[in-house]
Amino acid sequence: ASYCGGLFHRDAEKILGNATPDWLIARIAEIVPDAHALVLYYQRDHDKTNPLRLLPHTGGADEGYSITLSAWEELYSSRGNRRTRHNDRRREKRLTEYAPWHARIITSVHERRARMQTMFTQKRQWMHERGISDYLADEINRTLLMDLASSQPIAIEPVVDALDVEGQTAAVSFGITHGNAHYSLITSIHPDEKFWPFTPCDILFRHVLKFMCDSGVEHFDLGLGTTVPKEQYADHRFRMLHTLVPLTVPGRTFVAALRCQLAVKRLIKETPPLWSLFQRARSVRGAVQGVFDRTSG
Asked: What percentage of the chain reaches a pLDDT higher than 70?
């Protein structure tokens, strides 16, 4: 879910006692003497188990979202007004008139693997068309996600959910459940735009949300990035913190450049006209790159 908090002892703060940020920086510099800078991206601002949040940090351009769950009907009626619920029903009705459809949790390991492959294909095409960096191009990432989805429930339970329309996979979502919390990781949508007016990802999201409510899950982490369902249902938003600390003189120049980069990114994301322009430019770049890829192929 793009969080990079790390693994820490439950009593890390107690163990460190009154350690100051300067002491922590000096200790880290001793442990990694060849490092020029300490760069820790995407740490959650409310992760109290992370002692490194005491280090100097800057706010990121991205926000995370989470939902405190309750009974489904109670949650659904409290997070959306009458017009929103009417639009939800209208889109589902239009989809029913268009073609038979159903959303379901995939329990078979064999089918999970097949749906994950579909999700990889859909997600990679979606990112490519928008000029977004393809993290699924790395086979290691795909293998890790596939192994998670294929595992039998032990400490974590993989949840693969799919929305099928006229025999095609219109949308797929993947997340993991641990204890009383569910963490949404990836959602993909069919590249054919004929499905998009029905908002298949939104329908699938509500299906997963209802399933989690009915299963007794208490917390639903939606990860980073703004979407309409997140804005509608989330009752908690949190910023991501970036720790950027120079450890040497050359490291100061490097950290200064990173801070400027983050500041520009934050300005673009927080200024709607700039963000819209950036997204269009990124899509054009993706389209041009696609032409070159097809030509070279």
From this structure: 95
